[in-house]
From TrEMBL:
Pfam families, per database record: CN_hydrolase
Keyword annotations: Hydrolase, Signal
Domain CN hydrolase: 42-292
Record organism: Lolium multiflorum
Listed name of the protein: CN hydrolase domain-containing protein
Length: 319
């Protein structure tokens, strides 16, 4: 397995990517820091996997990847949407949904603690407001196994995908109503989930109202929509917010009815891809070293936060 690396001559230099696939593990020994400060780097990882309708099988995959990422020096590992379970029948996810202090999430909390690693767990089936609904919840766990923050997906995927099938997430899922950012040793994190990516307002809010520096986008994009829009939307969000973007993706066929696009990716604040797996179907992870001084460098050279006019125009508008 060849090392995937990307270089750029733009203001943000590309970081080294380390890729783990089913076939092999490529590792480099590098010093890493538990926090990010000016001039320092922190090693983060982005996972790609194919979840199925088996909680134990999915956990085994997540556990294996976490241990391998820890051995590669990763301090913060990001998993995709519905990492713990993807059912093949309507309503299956609601049946297994639990509270964040239930046994499923506590298992992942123990994994974070045992690995001394922060985990971003996107798209957990959190028990909803009634027996017929769940929340699609992005959970952030610290290296001691404590749930630091959680975000309930705001934008639900109710779409008739051209040439594909009809999806109606709201049938079994209740939307959240709160934008969430959280402090971490890796910068201020903006939490989102999948379909949120098509709504730039939430990312603008995370950047300009909540001072996010790193945007997390765990996803399970369909093959059709992923081929058309995945990378371009992620790069746009990075460029317009001047943030790192870490987007973990589901990949391949989960069952007879559902297939995901894949292409887990990390993008820097200039919009440069700095890490991705070498193919869209392998189960594994890619690694990059992020440096918040690069975020500040881009923002200083192009001070859009000081030049934005929309908020003041909106307040004075009669529309």
């Amino acid at each position: 397995m060849a090392l995937a690396s990307f270089a750029a001559s733009l203001p943000i230099a590309a970081a080294t990517a380390v890729v783990r696939t089913r076939a092999a593990v490529v590792r480099r020994a590098m010093s890493s820091s538990s926090s990010v400060s000016a001039g320092s780097q922190a090693r983060v990882g982005v996972v790609q996997m194919t979840s199925v309708g088996d909680l134990d099988a999915n956990y085994a995959t997540c556990s294996r990847l976490t241990k391998e990422a820890a051995a590669a020096g990763v301090k913060f590992l990001c998993f995709p949407e519905v990492f713990s379970f993807i059912g093949s029948k309507d309503g299956e996810s609601v049946k297994i949904a639990e509270s964040l202090d239930g046994p499923i999430m506590q298992r992942y909390c123990s994994l974070a603690n045992d690995s001394s690693m922060w985990l971003s767990l996107g798209g957990f089936q959190e028990k909803g407001p009634d027996d017929s609904h769940q929340y699609n919840t992005h959970v952030l766990i610290d290296d001691s196994g404590k749930v630091r923050s959680s975000y309930r997906k705001i934008h639900l995927f109710d779409v008739d995908v051209p040439g594909n099938m009809v999806y109606k997430e709201s049938r079994f899922t209740t939307a959240g109503d709160t934008v969430v950012a959280a402090d971490s040793p890796f910068g201020r994190l903006g939490l989102t989930v999948c379909y949120d990516l098509r709504f730039p307002e939430i990312y603008q809010c995370l950047r300009f109202k909540h001072q996010a520096q790193v945007l997390l986008v765990p996803s399970a994009f369909t093959k059709v929509t992923g081929e058309a829009h995945w990378e371009i939307l992620l790069r746009a969000r990075a460029i317009e917010t001047q943030c790192y973007v870490i987007a973990a993706a589901q990949a391949g066929k989960h069952n007879e009815k559902r297939e995901s696009y894949g292409d887990s990716i990390i993008i820097d604040p200039w919009g440069v891809v700095i890490a991705r797996l070498p193919d869209r179907l392998s189960t594994g992870f890619a690694v990059a070293d992020i440096d918040l001084s690069k975020v500040e460098a881009v923002r200083t050279k192009m001070p859009i936060s000081e030049q934005r006019k929309f908020d003041s125009i909106l307040k004075s508008s009669s529309l």
